Structures are given as C-alpha cells and as structure tokens.
Amino acid sequence: MSTVLILNGPNLGRLGSREPDVYGSGTLDDLKARLEAEASGLTIDLRQTDDEATLIGWLHEAVDSKYPVILNPAAFTHYSYALSDAAKLVTAAGLILIEVHLSNPHAREEFRHTSVISAVATGTIAGLGFDSYSLALAFVRSRLG
C-alpha cells in the first residue's frame, strides 16, 4: 500500500475556528477522515506543523521514502525559499508534489498572490476548500494507479 504525505503548514491546526468564512468550518480531523474515506488503497499520513524546519524535514523524508506529497504550505507559501528548495527536491526525485490551498490566494491580499512553491510543484489546486485536497488526492491516486 502506498503512502501519501499530506503536509500542512502554520495555523492549519486551527481549522474550524480560524476565520471559518475564509477556511471553512471543518477541522483538520474532519479533513483527515474525509481523505481516508477517499484513499482507495492508499495510506494517508496527514501532518501539521507551525514550524518551518519540521515541514522541511518532512519533505526530506518524502524524498528518502519515495512518498508523493500534498502540501499546503500556508503562510510559508509566500516567502519560504528554504521550503521551496525542499519541495524542489521532491519533484527533482521524480515524485509528485501538489500544492494546495483552501482559499484562493489570488482573491485575497496582494502579498498572497506570490507563491515560491508553485514553480517547483507538479501542480497547484486552490480555492476549493477541502475539495482542493480531494482533487489532489485523486490526481496522486491516478498517477500511482
């Protein structure tokens, strides 16, 4: 059974209570339950951290373990070149890395319009709430087929 790392950056542990008008009312546990139900033979390893170094370490683990990644870098999206370099290691290893966002960064504040992750990701899905993750998982599943 293949494992998919679903990695979430800062403040996403507050889903359900943090700006529900932007991020929805579902919690990270709700997201995990939904993705596990949609996994179809894949193992979901959903993680969240507010720490950039931990997130980078998890991307290194993905490379070493040959795991595809669904990544919501959250605020790190806009400025973390260290995270971008780690994400690039994933795709350079021939692995899938899908950048996801619950909200549409381009419909929000100007600083959110730039992603340092998108250029090194396999693809980006944004603005669809939990469906962003579901679509990313469906893509990963189809490629691992």
Could you give a quick summary of the protein structure above?
The chain is of the alpha/beta class and 145 residues long.
List the helices and strands and how they pair.
Blueprint: E1 3-8, H1 20-23, H2 28-38, E2 43-48, H3 52-65, E3 69-72, H4 81-92, E4 97-101, E5 123-126, H5 130-144
Parallel strand pairs: 1-2, 1-3, 3-4, 4-5
What does this structure look like?
The protein has 145 residues and is of the alpha/beta class. The chain is 39% helix and 17% strand. It has 5 helices and 5 strands. A 5-stranded parallel beta sheet has the order 2-1-3-4-5, sandwiched between helices. Strand 3 (69-72), helix 4 (81-92) and strand 4 form a beta-alpha-beta unit. Helix 2 runs parallel beside helix 5 (130-144) and helix 3 runs parallel beside helix 4 (81-92). The longest helix is centred in the C-terminal third of the chain and has 15 residues, at 130-144. The protein is globular. The termini are close together. The model has no long low-confidence stretch (mean pLDDT 91).
Through-space gap between termini = 11 Å
The unreliable regions are: none
What structural category do the secondary elements indicate? alpha/beta
How would the global form be characterised? globular
Number of strands: 5
Order of helices and strands: EHHEHEHEEH
Largest sheet features:
5 strands, parallel
Q: Looking at the chains present, what oligomeric state does this protein adopt? A: single chain
CA radius of gyration is 14 Å
Mean pLDDT: 91
| Cross-sheet strand order for the largest sheet | 2-1-3-4-5
Beta-strand content: 15-25%
Helix fraction? 25-40%
Number of helices: 5
